[in-house]
């Protein structure tokens, strides 16, 4: 093997830690961003929230009269004895101990947060997002006490609603525990996804029973029988249909709660047949299988259509699904004003006391040493870069949102029918950014408009050709299809071919397959399933 020296020129892209953090923060959603801020506040002693009001105590006189849910009461009844609660640890003490440990001997970070090496308090170290109002912690002069109207408006979960009914039943402790276990096993729609045997096995594991296999099998069989009795009680509770294992059983439970009429008996017979026949509205097959005439079958199907396929729907807490917009668009004269939502902007700043202590202890005279001082300096630089990256994140979101509003001005004036074609490259070229950056900004970021709240990606859509040589947005075409279908005759719904012809009459060239794709994206059934009986 011959050894030698060679000279080679190459280029490679190296991302600094602060640039990596900037890219990562840009693609986070609002919820993920809030979690990232909270984690950084816990880990970095130099970062603090600006003018954050003190939180109320978790345990105190105000919590003494807090209502206990019915499920917790039943859980206490079903348990023979509950272990004593361990004394609560003060959050302030834990936070202070963690802070002292970080200040006394912090280990150097693996990543290097490059900076100018200074530890003086720079003008940029002050709070950012000062215009954002502080979050209301609920403290105030008498405002923390909930009124009766507020308690009445508080949402009630499906489990709590069922537990309230279970309290009115005179059951043994074992039956009460079985019913409680079934109620807690329901999903949000009110269905039992697992079989009774699987639930019995899970109940056995939770109880910790063991020993001889024969005794375990006997206990498991007894638990399954007890769950079967509890299931009968659950399925007679309100709302009707709760505790069903599938859609057919849910519909049958609701029909049995109705009056015993010919339509109800026919509907019950139809629900005992394969649901595919009812979905396809195969009247002839249903009539032959159930032994009913055509008119009675149509009346039964009309009755089934009025039933609730998801009994727990009205108990779902809608607050969990509320989308908090990052950008708010309002009318301003003849134009529109684009502003950031102050509720999602964190108020952060560098801790002045610790930063000044770093500047005064530049040489590590207090015994921390040069290594400890360098680690604290890296933490300080990390806090500064975190604040700047958050500011850059919101600035980029605001720039992209302003460009979208400028491009889609017709949408904000006339609605989605006036949406124009728009691709990521147009916004990227206008702002001098990369398409990947625009994609990160528009993902999981929302804009509140006069027509509702939309994800930023909603304003981008491909183009379809028109007879005049122009382009129409796919979003506008979907809105037009929705308008056509909503105005159709229920007895004669429009097929995909007819919808394609209607679009062609409007000057938009759209094939039948494209119409079907847009219709499925709008979650609209085909014509044969939309036909009214």
Structural class: alpha+beta
The rough form would be described as: extended
Average predicted confidence as pLDDT: 77
What's the count of strands? 8
The level of helicity is 40-55%
- Beta-strand portion reads 5-15%
How big is the Rg?
A: 32 Å
> How far apart, in Å, are the first and last alpha carbons?
87 Å
Strand order of the largest sheet: 3-2-5-6
Number of helices: 23
Q: Poorly predicted ranges (pLDDT <50, ≥5 residues)?
A: 53-66, 68-126, 130-152
Largest sheet: 4 strands, mixed
Describe this structure in words.
This protein is α+β, with helices and mostly antiparallel strands and 533 residues long. Among the domains are: 159-234, no CATH class; 247-315; 321-459, no CATH class; 463-530, Arc Repressor Mutant, subunit A, CATH 1.10.10. It is 49% helix and 6% strand. It has 23 helices and 8 strands. It has helices at residues 17-26, 30-43, 70-78, 91-104, 148-153, 158-166, 173-184, 196-207, 213-234, 247-256, 262-271, 275-280, 283-290, 294-305, 352-360, 369-407, 409-414, 424-431, 435-442, 474-486, 496-505, 512-521, 527-530, and strands at 47-49, 327-332, 335-340, 348-350, 446-449, 452-455, 463-465, 471-473. Strands 3-2-5-6 form a 4-stranded mixed beta sheet, covered by helices on one side. A two-stranded antiparallel sheet has the order 1-4. Strand 7 (463-465) and strand 8 (471-473) form a beta hairpin. It is extended and about 85 Å long. The N and C termini lie far apart (87 Å). Residues 53-66, 68-126 and 130-152 have low confidence and may be disordered.
């Amino acid at each position: 093997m011959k050894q030698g020296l060679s000279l080679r020129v190459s280029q490679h892209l190296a991302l600094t830690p602060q640039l990596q953090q900037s890219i990562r923060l840009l693609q986070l959603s609002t919820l993920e961003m809030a979690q990232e801020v909270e984690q950084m506040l816990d880990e970095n002693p130099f970062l603090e929230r600006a003018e954050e009001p003190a939180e109320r105590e978790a345990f105190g006189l105000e919590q003494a009269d807090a209502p206990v849910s019915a499920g917790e009461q039943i859980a206490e009844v079903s348990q023979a004895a509950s272990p004593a609660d361990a004394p609560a640890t003060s959050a302030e003490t834990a936070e202070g101990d963690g802070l002292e440990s970080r200040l006394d001997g912090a280990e150097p970070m693996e990543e290097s947060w490059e900076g100018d090496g200074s530890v003086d308090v720079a003008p940029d170290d002050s709070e950012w997002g000062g215009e954002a109002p502080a979050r209301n912690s609920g403290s105030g002069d008498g405002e923390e006490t909930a009124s009766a109207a507020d308690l009445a408006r508080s949402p009630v979960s499906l489990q709590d609603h069922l537990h309230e009914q279970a309290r009115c039943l005179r059951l043994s402790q074992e039956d009460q525990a079985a019913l409680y276990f079934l109620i807690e096993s329901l999903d949000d729609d009110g269905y039992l996804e697992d079989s009774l045997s699987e639930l019995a096995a899970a109940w056995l594991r939770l109880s910790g029973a063991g020993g001889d296999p024969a005794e375990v099998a006997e206990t498991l069989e007894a638990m399954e029988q007890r769950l079967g009795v509890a299931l009968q009680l659950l399925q007679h509770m309100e709302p009707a249909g709760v505790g069903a294992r599938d859609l057919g059983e849910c519909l049958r439970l609701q029909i049995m709660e109705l009056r015993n009429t010919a339509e109800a008996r026919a509907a019950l017979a139809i629900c005992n047949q394969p649901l595919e026949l009812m979905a396809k509205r195969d009247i002839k097959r249903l009539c032959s299988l159930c032994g009913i005439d055509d008119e009675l079958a149509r009346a039964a199907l009309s009755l089934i259509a009025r039933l609730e396929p998801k009994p727990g729907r009205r108990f779902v807490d809608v607050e969990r699904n509320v989308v908090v917009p990052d950008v708010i668009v309002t009318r301003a004269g003849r134009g529109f004003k684009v502003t950031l939502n102050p509720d999602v902007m964190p108020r952060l700043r560098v801790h002045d006391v610790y930063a000044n202590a770093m500047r005064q202890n530049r040489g590590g005279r207090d015994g921390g040493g040069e290594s400890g001082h360098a680690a604290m300096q890296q933490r300080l630089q990390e806090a500064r870069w975190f604040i700047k990256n958050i500011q850059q994140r919101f600035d980029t979101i605001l720039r992209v949102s302003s460009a979208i509003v400028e491009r889609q001005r017709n949408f904000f004036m006339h609605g989605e029918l006036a949406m124009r074609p728009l691709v990521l490259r147009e916004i990227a070229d206008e702002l001098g950014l990369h398409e990947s950056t625009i994609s990160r900004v528009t993902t999981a970021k929302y804009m509140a408009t006069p027509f509702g709240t939309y994800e930023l990606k909603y304003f981008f859509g491909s183009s379809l050709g028109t007879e005049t040589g122009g382009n129409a947005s796919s979003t506008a075409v979907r809105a037009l299809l929705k308008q056509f279908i909503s105005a159709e005759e229920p007895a004669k719904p429009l097929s995909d071919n007819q919808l394609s012809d209607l679009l062609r009459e409007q000057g938009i060239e759209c094939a039948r397959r494209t119409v079907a794709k847009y219709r499925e994206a709008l979650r609209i059934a085909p014509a044969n399933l939309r036909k009214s009986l």
